[in-house]
UniProtKB/TrEMBL annotation, chain A:
Keywords: Cytoplasm, Exosome. Gene3D superfamilies: GHMP Kinase, N-terminal domain. Residues 21-151 form the Exoribonuclease phosphorolytic domain. It is found in: Cytoplasm; Nucleus, Nucleolus. This is Exosome complex component rrp41. It comes from Anaeramoeba ignava (Anaerobic marine amoeba).
TrEMBL record, chain B:
Keywords: Coiled coil, Cytoplasm, Exonuclease, Exosome, Hydrolase, Magnesium, Nuclease, Nucleus, RNA-binding, rRNA processing. This is Exosome complex exonuclease rrp44. GO terms for biological process: nuclear mRNA surveillance of mRNA 3'-end processing; rRNA catabolic process; rRNA processing. Its cofactor is Mg(2+). Residues 55-169 form the PIN domain. One of its GO terms (molecular function) is 3'-5'-RNA exonuclease activity. It comes from Anaeramoeba ignava. GO terms for cellular component: cytoplasmic exosome (RNase complex); nuclear exosome (RNase complex). Pfam families: OB_Dis3, PIN_4, RNB, Rrp44_CSD1. Residues 323-355 form a coiled coil.
Automatic annotation (TrEMBL), chain C:
The keyword Nucleus applies. Pfam families: ECR1_N, S1_RRP4. Belongs to the RRP4 family. InterPro entries: Exosome_cplx_N_dom, Exosome_RNA_bind1/RRP40/RRP4, KH_dom_type_1_sf, NA-bd_OB-fold, S1_domain, S1_RRP4. Keywords: Exosome, Nucleus, RNA-binding, rRNA processing. The lineage of its organism: Eukaryota, Metamonada, Anaeramoebidae, Anaeramoeba. It is found in: Nucleus. The keyword Nucleus applies. It comes from Anaeramoeba ignava. It comes from the Eukaryota. SMART domains: S1. This is Exosome complex component rrp4.
Amino acid sequence: MEISEYVNPEGLRIDGRRRKELRKIEIEMGKLEQVDGSALFVEGFTRVMASVCGPKEVENRSKAVEDKAFISVEFLSATFSTRKRTKMSKKDRRVLEICSIIRKTFEPVLQLELFPESEISIFIQVLQADGGVESACINAVTLALIDAGIPMIDFVCSCTGTYLDSFCILDTNFIEETAGGSILIAAILAKSKKVVSTQMKISRLKMENFTELLELVVDGCSRIYDLMEDATRKRTKEQLNSQTALIK
Amino acid sequence: MHYSKTILKKTKRGNVLRVVKEHYLRDDIGFGSELITQTGEYKPEHKPLLKEAEEYLILDTDIIMHQMDAIENSNALQNVVILQTVLDSIRLSSINTYRRIRKVISDPNRHFFVFSNEHHRLSYVHSITGESPFARNQRAIRKAASLYTNVFNQKIKIVFITNDLENLKKAQDEGIFSETIYQYASRLKNYPEFVDMLVEPQKSEKNMNIEKDNKDNKENKDNKENQENFLYPQHLTKKEIFEGISKGKYYQGTIHINPNNFYEAFVNCEGYEESFIIQGRKNINRAVDRDIVAIELFPKDQKVSLSSKIIEHTNEEDEDIMIEKYQEKEKEETEENLNLNLNKNQNQNNNKNRKSQLQSAKIVGIIKRNWRQYCGSIQLDQVFLKQGGRFENLLFIPVEKRIPKIRIKTRQVDALLNKRIVVVIDSWERNSRYPNGHYIKTLGDIGDKEVESEVILIEHEVPHESFCEDVLKCLPLEQENWQIPQEEIAKRKDLRNLCIISIDPPGCKDIDDCLHVRNLDNGNYEVGVHIADVSYFVKEGTPIDIEAANRSTTVYLVDRRINMLPPLFGENLCSLHQNIDRLTFSVIWELNEKAEIIQTWFGKTVICSKAALSYGEAQLRKDDPKMKDEITESIRTLNKLSKYLEERRKEAGALTLASPEVHFSMDSETQEPLDVEVYQHKEVNHLVEEFMLLANISVAERIFEYFPQSALLRRHPSPIKSQFDNLLKSLENFNLSLDISSPKNLSKSLDKAIIKNNPYFNKLLRILTTRSMTQAVYFASGTLDYKDFFHFGLAAPIYTHFTSPIRRYADVCVHRLLASSLDIEAVSDKLTRKESVHEICKVLVPKYGIEIKNQKC
Amino acid sequence: MINEPQRIVTPGEILTQESDFLRGHGVSLQNNQLTATISGVVEKVNKLVSVEPLKSRYNPHVGDIVIGRINEVMRKKWKVEVNSTQNAILSLSAIILPDGIQRRRTSTDEMNMRNFYKEDDLICAEVQKIQWQENKIFLHTRSLKYGKLKIRSIDYLLLILGVNGYCWISSPETVPKIDKKNTDKNNWWVSTHQKTDFEKDLSTDPKSAKLRIRKRFIDDESQRYKSFTQEMREKIARTRNSIFVLSTLNMTIDPIAIMKIYSKSLSLQLESKDMLEPNNMMNLIDAKEEEKI
């Protein structure tokens, strides 16, 4: 039987990272032209595209909320995104779960009361899945919402960590995520460092290990925030420059 | 933190899967020597390679794979760089070797350093299309070696050691100073034994293939000559074996050599009740005891009865004669059988004969060798004393009779004569009667008591080294003066004022259980079982925990004990001595008049034992009507209650089985054993046992409730009919029989099986029954159905081990699970996943052949 | 003021420590500190702090001229999609009746609402008033320059740049026998953004819009193609793509800029279909910059 070493005694993980290192992150905003806002969030080999339409008139009247906007989320995982080509139906439990996580994460952050009886629809497409998909989705949605110019009180940044073989590991890839450790997905408000949502998979963890893991993940989130903030600022600057190009 | 921007794709095509993995290259990996300092290096203080060293060695994969014993046991190799590529390929091919090399690496005196070349920006190599992974790895190793050569430039000599001549040549061409391990060993002056430990160079695969081709050709031409050249038939390749197995042509099984007859072996195949018999040296074909082999059956009618002859190792010349004789006899026997077959009148007789016959087979290939280290001595008459310094071919006789003699080479004959030495097998060529091996270490003089004890321990693979430093560091600093911290007492229920007593065998040092009883106002009784709280001292995942898990039990020898925990814990801090405050884990019941459980309480407590009694003392107190003190009254009440428990258990069908327990009386001064006596069971023994069983069952229910998947339980499977065949057949002679369908029936039939004028007969029968039963085993609750949890011997639907954490590791795990179920201390995921608990259970199987005290059912 | 570097903020960023500022768009009060809620440029007018987004939905102001599409015909009003957070409302009383007489709307008018504007008609209108609380926009077309957009018989290209980001390019050719129902088919949709004049592509519901247009193409394809000369089509396409180039590159869309791109593409002898290739786009822009210098 092959026993895998997820962190070898030299302190390297299978892919060569150290315990607390993130994967390579790339961010592209506003790539899609047909929607109000869009963002591509690439973390290692995990690749998620999020797009946002709205706020707009609610399509399905019965869902309208009188005093604030309603968030609808659609999640789609490309059949080629995972190792096995599987098609997830829209009513798949995982799909519904992730949609509800996204909705619950963003409801308190967005200033929905500014848009009564409107709808903000979020569309998430996973192009490639290599661990940390939920986190990448949250990050991509944050960026897409910012790109769409929808007011939100703070950045929501998310990161995944696992407690595996008595090590806390940050930013898990597919192998680490399926290794059977306790997985923690946390989303925080970047500026206030408030944890807005956490999710545990295969739990039962010592309290002290949980605290350690949470600290690690929160630290990961704030590092991801730096990158996201940077990308947003860069994007805004680009827009501004081209806008003023003619005025010059 | 440097990530390289390069992301490389590793593809692995199994079925239709194409796995793409990320691979980061780094700049922060150091070279492990103080001579080179880089900026931004990770862990810059970790530099095990000495700067004073003359040279740094880089070992190739094959060196570590084949010369592990030499690396492990000799200090000749120091300042060694182990490459990650090498480690990875070792881990894939042998997890055992991997663990051993890791152990060597972690030894600070050896100055081994792991260089993560696969993730170093300068030493990573891409695989070229069409290149085999092996060739790619070799290239990676050479690249890393040349990187080292360049980096250390003239400062220190880098030596690349490989036995692969092709690789050696390529490395030399690339400007790396390279040599074989033999060349290196010959340069070494200070370590003469190092050469002995090396495994002989093996014929490379290519040669083997050529040989095979030649052989095939020859076989066609001259079959006879060939058979003379090769003593043994060729083994099939793995591929052929697996094809054969899937076609049903061959069978896979574990071989067991008959200890009384070296030319006879049995193979147990899964799914077959009867084992297959293999007779003769050629048929056994170089299989060593406990190897996993592939066998081919002889035609069905060739059934063979077991030979009752005892054949031991003899000198080479005699052997053939013996075999011939043996084979002749065998022939006669078979012929006889055939005659019988023909004779229809004797049909009945024949059938009877057949029962003890087994299907014979021959070994066609070895699936997995299970070679280990063997203890033994040099065969004396082989030694012709010569001037030292030269290699001598010697024969080694293992202590274990199942193991063949081993041919070893040594330069230090004088030093090895009349010594117990340890040897391993390297290979067994077709043209060699005996396997080739090499020397590992000397234990001491033959016949010395200490040495022979160690031989026994090694032969049974009992870890018996004294506790290593890491483990001892886990002990409290105050050593025996350790006091229970006040805050710990505050957290626990204080039972120090209760009259708590312990009853154990005389001279028992590791007392892990105590009892108390008191009358409640409502007429019921409160009975408490208090078990030493080992899990308070042994925290999960610490070195002491890992070591204890590895040892799994305390092993009792005549003159010594191989402790599972360091004596400071086992005999002092955890042991519940008289009049000392101790931490315990308690189960307290409220029992009614008939000893039925009204309610159960679990929790951590602190106690102070009022009396540590021996069985004898307790029995005396109980029987003495004059004694009326609290302790004695407690014993009487407990005894009364235990009678109810015992009765109920028997009613349910618990077996009173017997295993011969002997007790050595020791000379109090010299610790020499003086006499052997059969252990006497007293009434109070049962008393303690009953309450321990009750505690175990209560705990089992509790942890199963909280950890339905991962509770560590113990079950005793119902006996297998066939294993009782012999016993039942013998009983027919007495007109008796046993009903093994349920514990109750078995118990009843055992009670009936009495011969009037032979009082020992029933006891003997019980011993034999015990022997015929399957062993009780640990398991994770998630791996089986609830109905399979049944403990046959105790007739309990669910059972575990809770009461002896000092001497059994399983109990420690159970303690942790129980603590977690009470929200006292959480457990790691190791104990909450059924897979990992299942792994733990596998390790906990009692070591082969060792009788473990108190390991009843 | 102009030389002062514009401060870019991202959501969650604290705008100022002083507390006596007033809160404008894109600003929220978190822990007693003024915090940005969108990413954009800070603007301070006296004591009012606001963050101007560089991209958002149409934020209406009274008096804006917008182009919208009729989404729904309701009782006494139309719902008009104008690229804002809510559909705008055009009430029956806010239009000019065909007879041009100012009078009370009768129930007959109510019955005839579809004759005035029906679903998917494109209209040009002005923002009449905004009810901020309910997030409602009211439009009116009480002027001859507003109303249904259709092909007119004038010899120049008609271009309406709606402040809400939608543009209208129309053919100047006289089309014989225009079926009134199908007038708007010869037109291209481009959306640009109003106010900051930033571009934002397509209407709210691209899927359904495309479907409907496709269907009508088939209905009277033959007639439609007959009514245009190759030359005219070429012009329209070139104009459309000029706007598209500007919008793709986040540049301000105004008539001058459009004209510049248009003429540059001619001088570079680019075919209109090639204008949208990234390389060519950059060439067109560079050219524009050079001209400036």
